[in-house]
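Today's session is about reading a structure prediction critically. Students often jump straight to the picture, but the first step is always the sequence itself: look for stretches that repeat, for charged clusters, for runs of hydrophobic residues. Only then move on to the predicted structure, which in these notes is written as discrete structure tokens rather than atom positions. Here is the chain we will use throughout the hour.
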Amino acid sequence: MQRQTIFGFGGAVTDSAAINIKYLSEEAQDNLIKMHFGSQGSRYNIIRINIAACDFSVRGYSYDDVEGDVDLVYFNLTEEDYNFKIPVIKEAIDVSPEEIYIFGSPWSPPAWMKTNGEIDGQGKLLKEMWQPYANYLVKFFQMYEDHLGVQLWGFTPENEPLISQNYTFLTTPNCVFLPEEMRDWISTVLGPTLEEAEYDRLKLMIYDYNQSLDNVHDMDPTKFILYSEACTGSHLGSVVLGAWDRGEQYVCDIIEDTNHWATGWVDWNIVLDTEGGPNWINNYVDAPVIVNATADEFYIQPLYYALSLFSRNVPRGSVHIFSDVDNDNLKTTAFINPDGEVVLIVANFSDEEHTLGVFNEDGVYVFKYTINARTWLALTYKI
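Below is the predicted structure for this chain, in token form.
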């Protein structure tokens, strides 16, 4: 049974990720970027970028911190964009064998556009700022496309719009958007503004604070679901080099998400330093690649190999197909690639090897395979 078409796999080029990459020598930078985006590397084909400051920045900022500048006369990108993110993304585009889908997510509007006058806290977007903020986002799209030389693919109007209501102690930039308020802003202001500026071609993805994948799919099967952020290490010791249990977490999560209608899976920071930063609010986590700039080195983590299992074997345009396994120690997900090849991804999370028999949808035996303990792999075959 064929299900959703796959957009791809990738990660976020945050301020912190780009800064870490640019701290390396040019040779090391090139090697690292090729490992993520090159044909011999993970072949990431999705990039997420933060629109102004997020927690993985080195400071809090917006693209217009001049209070009351509703005409956005002082709007501009920052050094984080010009010196770090844009150069890294341009090199990723250059080494990628295919188009990279690039989408942005804002954490907060400028503080003066919010009810609490801060980029963090539990403030909302002032209603009189609905139009200025829509214009703000359009300016971001225009300037990024001008500097990258390619079109953006999409955006979310707000990262985790309810996080500060559920976690009141957080100091990360955010903006509270209740579903009804976001609906009204999009339909009456943002949507028409995008259309007028000819940015209605962008994929608008809403409510990136949701994990009820089956329920969302059943509400409207014509809409796609993209898993837009994942990470590990928060409150768990941040960076742990060589932590294969964290790699298993990623594999398990990607299998579960693609089995429940996700069209792709986007990691959080593609690169961090040995502390899991930089992060201006001390919210450190782990990442697939860890940079030691002092030694001009970077370390490949099990998380990298976990995501590469999918990004290298399941190209864009593959179609998810139903799979099941009668063994609680194994997890599977399966796809048909554009060339007609079947890719069966199998993960054995137990300490023993297991033999599985593969049958097609008509119940016809195809082959058997013995998978070693603590192993994840892709089995490919023609129907």
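Discussion point for the tutorial: The domain at 2-317 is CATH 3.20.20.80 (TIM Barrel).
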